[in-house]
């Protein structure tokens, strides 16, 4: 349903306002149950993954390239705007003027991921870029899914989706509601819980791999600032480190996850 | 030499203007031969690595913590400002109000790195975040240095330094002036040149490692958009890929470098 819009204040565009205002977006997206996909490739991936669109906000030149994935959604408002208009609405220079607003799905329960063999468990990673990169790395390296602590950043936030290159739509992930019971539940499901942390008595990743990688592995990573919480370090089946050289304190959490996912795949 | 400044337009602060304006900064920093370090830890690392300061721009509360590294530079202007002033000068919210302007050194020649055993060679990685992350990963995982193509982003750009966590000061790196001769020079110096690329006939990183890692390895990585140039792919001793799953196109270049540095260390 093609609609040409010329007023950036048009209330029909309210899903798209102030895309750089993280706190406002959090409220808007939670209340309306939506998320925003940005860029042709990401919109395509969201639709191919079966997410239902609320509306599209596209510059004219994207229409031919997206025609095939737009076709089944003829009843959905397709707001055609200039790139300047897109900028006026969203408050920033939209990546080549292609946006979609999509319905969130009911959250995946943690239990759905417990049949997997390789999980990344992300403690309080509050940075959307890190969450997106972590998902991309876990997916690319063939891991089965990601569990997120209650305070970890939202994988369906625009920036996280973009950095993940849309892998948030294909890799299974779940929010852990009760963080305190997550570790015993993982162990009960047969996982060896591996805390990735640079504690003095950690085993090196090398040595851990040499001793034989267990059948089911859950790698737990923590925030960059404070690292993994002491509780997980204390209770994990193994504390494993990627030894650092040249005086470097640590790798970024997404890079560390990539190395661990490669070594333990 | 402590100087309190109250006018954000004070010409003595001209090293610090418009820190988010990449093109302006490129001109300012090249012409004056300076770079900017941001944050207490990064300033400390730059000074410890022997870089000579031109001046400091610090909020009062940083003085005690940096006193030991500031002491040998009593003749260098130390501009003490409020955090609001720092913001007014630099045009953005400076990370907790701590900046230093330092002299660049003469560039390291490529030849200085050819005695190493493990080098990362970065083709046209134009994103400062990626260059900084790549340096951090190479350093943390114990590689000996990084060679940068002529068009790769400046590791001494503020954002690159910050993302690298200051490893740009400790890990040797050099700009390759003549890109066309870089590959034969590496080979002449005894390196096995490994192109990291997702070409259909690439060997998987696993298989390459299983066949025995050569004594001297130079891993060449390319830009994320276009990947490595065909010339390097054609001429490399081996083309190696990190196999991707879940429909992911590729890892981010810094994450791919981390995996390769780990596997080939």
TrEMBL record, chains A, B:
Pfam families membership: MRM3-like_sub_bind, SpoU_methylase
Keywords: Methyltransferase, Transferase
Protein source organism: Propioniciclava flava
Domain of life, source organism: Bacteria
Classification via CDD domains: SpoU-like_rRNA-MTase
Gene Ontology process terms (BP): methylation; RNA processing
PANTHER family on file: RRNA METHYLASE, RRNA METHYLTRANSFERASE 3
Gene Ontology molecular-function annotations: RNA binding; RNA methyltransferase activity
Domain tRNA/rRNA methyltransferase SpoU type: 119-261
Protein name as annotated: rRNA methyltransferase
Start and end residues of each MRM3-like substrate binding domain: 30-90
InterPro entries hit by this protein: Alpha/beta_knot_MTases, MRM3-like_sub_bind, Ribosomal_eL30-like_sf, rRNA_Methyltransferase, SpoU_MeTrfase, tRNA_m1G_MTases_N
